[in-house]
Design a protein that fits this description.
The structure holds two protein chains of two kinds. Chain A is an alpha/beta fold. Chain A has twelve helices and nine strands. Chain A has two domains: 158 residues, Rossmann fold, CATH 3.40.50; 118 residues, N-(1-d-carboxylethyl)-l-norvaline Dehydrogenase, domain 2 (Orthogonal Bundle). Chain B is built from 13 helices and nine strands. Classes of the chains: A alpha/beta, B alpha/beta.
């Protein structure tokens, strides 16, 4: 199948390679052409050209505005994609934005899935991402073989936007857990107790979690080089709080964690790992 | 002075009336024509659009709901503006939005000033509002006679946007202040202590404040009529939290408070005064 890929960053690049390895004909477009260097793909001059050539297009880029520009803007995908082709947006954006883009594309007969992913760079490399899909079931079934190149857990959540809602829930739980791990390890250290031992002990009990495993390990080793850049979690928390506000749902813990992320950004640690929440606690 | 006044809601109507009382020549416009009638009865002239209202006036004042409304009104004003017109927006909007409107209007030769107010409907009627102005010295000098009809404590805070920054700071203090009084009252009640007596005692000490005095009394009276509606306080705190997010500013107390107001709006208390946060606390702690 002819498959397009836009967004060749830490996540997108390994995902595109998996699609290529599964025998598909890969097409790419990048704002900075050098980010496509070395990829076994046809480079397209614009998203519209890429859209014209492909049956399915993946996007995994940063913000709601970026996805909107690539999908609907001048020389955007909607100018090239033919009716019946599918856009699979794996970016994390606002549910409202996903619904809006899907509705605009539908006017031209183009189908869309919001399909944000969880699992981080390692999950992208290992093809073990969790994929949360919003859109029509038949569209999901059509692209399922492609999604299976990227991850094992593919869940249809509901109509367009539902995938992004699930991703927002994922971010709330995960980053709150990172903050909890940071606070626990900070308390252990301040009490003169060996953090590594505490983490080792907890791993066998009720508080065991993947976050404690992975992010706790980074905290113990004080390895703050990014796995996931904290600025992306900061961005996601803006989306979550906006969604909570629109629904009138109180999210007191999320709001508090968001303030710790604001402090992290103020320290200039946005491109470091979110394990840096530990360093924010150490400031006080 | 020849003044155009745009937006005649709970706040705008008494403010415009005070300009008339101060002897100014006032032209009004409001989206709903019936809102204009009380002003026309009091001697104001009516206009058919913001653009028409601005024509031939030295000063334009707007008092509307949110940033998109201000932008729309000011876009109309800019179309009719004579060079040197001063436009003052007294609504509460995000500082960044005010700065942008200032830049847009400067291109049309209009000197824009943000001048949000504090003091509520009572202050608007009595002409005792606090006015926090951001913009040029020249704009402030032009608007000052009008400000003096509407308010008492009038401060030129700084450049365009600075008035809205001061107003956001005001909403941080009043939001947390109302929540603090409500929590102190919930604490007293759960301990079986008379909150009225607690209020009376505290008014003599360091925790004394206008919020404890006025809002505290209304909590005791269980008078939850607005005043200042909680959905508007939620909107204002959202401006604070959005700005904090953009700047990388850690505001844990404001964040917690914003979520309480968010819960009020979500549970149908948005039209009640923000002191109804007391009822939310009571519900959470089983004190109903």
């Amino acid at each position: 199948m002819k498959v397009g890929f836009i967004g060749l960053g830490a996540m997108g690049r390994p995902m595109a390679l998996h699609v290529h390895r599964a025998g598909h004909d890969l097409h790419v477009w990048a704002r900075r052409p050098e980010s496509a260097a070395g990829l076994p793909a046809t480079f397209c001059a614009t998203p519209a050209e890429l859209g014209r050539r492909c049956e399915v297009v993946f996007t995994i880029i940063t913000s709601s505005a970026d996805v909107e520009t690539v999908a609907l803007g001048t020389n955007g995908l909607s100018e090239g994609m033919v009716p019946g082709s599918v856009l699979v947006d794996c970016s994390t954006i606002a549910p409202d934005a996903a619904r809006h883009i899907a509705a605009k594309l539908a006017e031209k007969g183009i189908r869309m899935l919001d399909a944000p992913v969880s699992g981080g760079v390692q999950g992208a490399i290992d093809a073990t991402l969790a994929i949360m899909a919003g859109g029509e079931v038949e569209v999901l079934e059509r692209v399922r073989p492609l999604l299976e190149c990227l991850g094992q857990r593919i869940v249809h959540i509901g109509p367009n936007g539902a995938g992004q809602v699930a991703k927002a829930c994922n971010q709330m739980i995960m980053v709150a857990a990172i903050e909890a791990a940071a606070e626990a390890l900070r308390l252990a250290a301040a009490s003169g107790v060996d953090c590594a031992k505490v983490k080792q002990a907890l791993a066998g009990g009720s508080a065991a979690s993947r976050v404690l495993d992975v992010m706790g390990e980074r905290m113990v080793k004080r390895d703050f080089a990014a796995g996931i850049e904290a600025r992306l979690h900061h961005k996601d928390f803006g989306l979550v709080l906006e969604a909570a506000r629109k629904s009138g749902v109180p999210v007191p813990l999320t709001a508090t964690v968001a303030q710790q992320l604001n402090a992290l950004m103020a320290q200039g640690w946005g491109r470091d790992d979110t394990a840096s929440l530990l360093r924010v606690l150490e400031l006080a | 002075m020849k003044i155009a006044f745009i937006g005649l809601g709970i706040m705008g109507r008494p403010m415009a009336l005070n300009l008339l009382k101060g002897g100014h020549d006032v032209t009004v416009w409001a989206r709903r024509a019936e809102s204009m009638q009380p002003l026309l009865d009091a001697g104001a002239k009516g206009a058919g659009s913001p653009s028409e209202a601005a024509q031939g006036n030295e000063l334009v004042i707007s008092m509307v709901a949110d940033a998109p409304d201000v932008a729309e009104v000011m876009c109309g004003v800019a179309q009719a503006a004579a060079p040197g017109l001063v436009a003052v927006d007294m609504s509460t909007i995000a500082p960044a939005a005010a700065r942008q409107i200032g830049v847009d209007l400067a291109a049309a030769g209009v000197d824009f000033m943000d001048a949000p107010v504090s003091g509520g409907e009572v202050g608007a009627v009595a002409g005792t509002l606090s006015i926090m102005a951001g913009g040029s010295e020249a704009a402030f000098a032009r608007a000052k006679p009008a400000f003096e009809c509407m308010g008492k404590n009038i401060v030129h805070v700084g450049a365009c946007g600075a008035g809205q920054v001061a107003k956001a700071a005001n909403q941080i203090l009043t939001g947390m202040g109302v929540l603090a009084v409500a929590e102190a009252f919930a604490f007293a009640a759960k301990n079986g202590v008379d909150r009225g007596k607690v209020r009376e005692a505290l008014l003599g000490g360091f925790a004394s404040s206008r919020i404890l005095e006025n809002h505290g009394q209304r909590m005791l009276d269980r008078n939850f009529k607005p005043g200042f509606k909680s959905w508007m306080h939620e909107k204002d705190l959202n401006i604070v939290m959005q700005t904090a997010h953009e700047l990388g500013l850690c505001l844990p107390g404001s964040a917690a408070t914003a979520q309480m107001f968010n819960a009020m709006v979500g549970s149908g208390m948005g039209e009640e005064d923000s002191i109804a946060v007391l009822k939310l606390l009571e519900r959470l702690s089983g004190q109903e």
